[in-house]
Write a structure and sequence with these properties.
Order of helices and strands: HEEEEEEEEEEEEHEHEEHEHEHH
Shape: elongated
Oligomer: single chain
Largest sheet: 6 strands, mixed
Structural class: alpha/beta
CATH topology of the largest domain: Aminopeptidase
Number of strands: 17
CATH superfamily of the largest domain: Zn-dependent exopeptidases
CATH class of the largest domain: Alpha Beta
Helix content: 25-40%
Distance between the termini: 130 Å
Bound molecules: zinc ion
Strand content: 25-35%
Number of helices: 7
CATH architecture of the largest domain: 3-Layer(aba) Sandwich
Low-confidence stretches: 36-58
Number of domains: 2
Amino acid sequence: MGKETFRLKKAGWLVLCLAGLCLFSVLLLQAGKIRAEAETMTTEVATTESKEQTLDASTTQQAISPSITFSKKKKSLKAGKSFRFQVKTVGITDKVTFKVSDTKLAKINSSGKLTALRTGKVKVIAIAGEYSASVSVTIKPKKIVALDPGHSAKMTGGTEPIGPGSSVKKAKDATGTRGVSSGQMEYELTMKLARKMKPLLEDKGYQVVLTRSNNKKAISCVERAKVANKAGADIFIRIHADGINNASVSGASALYPSSRNPYVGKLSSKSKKLSSCVLNAMCKKTGAKNRGLVARDDLSGSNWAKMPVTLIEVGFMTNPEEDKKLAQNSYQDKLAKGMVQGIEAYFGY
Ligand SMILES: [Zn+2]
């Protein structure tokens, strides 16, 4: 072997060793990478597992406490109005049904739509399986009506100003008229009519205030108006019957303050409309002769009112035929229903 040959052999070994080293390094690196990847995968698996654990926990919690709550509700509603109550359920599969605690006050349908009928307090109850939720609702009146049954068996006596601030005075009250055939007193008839009108109006969602509740109470005309004012009434209906020294005169009329009235002139047009609505509806219902509207500014009970006012003369008790009708329960029902229809017409319901 020559010197050259030996050198070549030496170089060959060196190259082989270097190549071997390189391969070893690459293998080492690859191994490291694989380990790192494997670790990442392990971490991912762990993360997925912990998510699943969280889900399991929440599912378990839902199953433990199912609930039903109102998501849309109202605490008060005006009679005649509707509102749809809604509930949210958690963990309950049963269908939700609705009911109310008093069906005279309100009705509710299967989708939770409540319609307020009469004033008062009612509970709305939502039921799903064995679970339920309830909410209390106050039903407010659509309007307040003051009814004044004219006269009384007991008299107050004395005088009072004809209007606020007036120096002109008038008797506080009068005995009223009397049925020529029936012997019925005007104050008895007016009280019967007011008592018939009250529940009819309440059924339609009105709040009703009576200026007197029996025939033993003495009350002046101004005091009657003050009852209506204090109640914050929207309208004031004064119920009377007519009397005249002529047996042939019959029919119904309505008295309203004129626009020149120094106390309630501003209420004249509304009072005239109210008078017209109530008188026309009443005459239509009963078939009574309609004598029309009369402007009157000397009625202290009307002059002290702070709301539209009418005084309805339902018929003549001095006419034997009409008096007999006015004493009949069925005719009184018609008078009451007719006046209530007139009130509805005035408000536009
Ligand atoms: Zn009278």
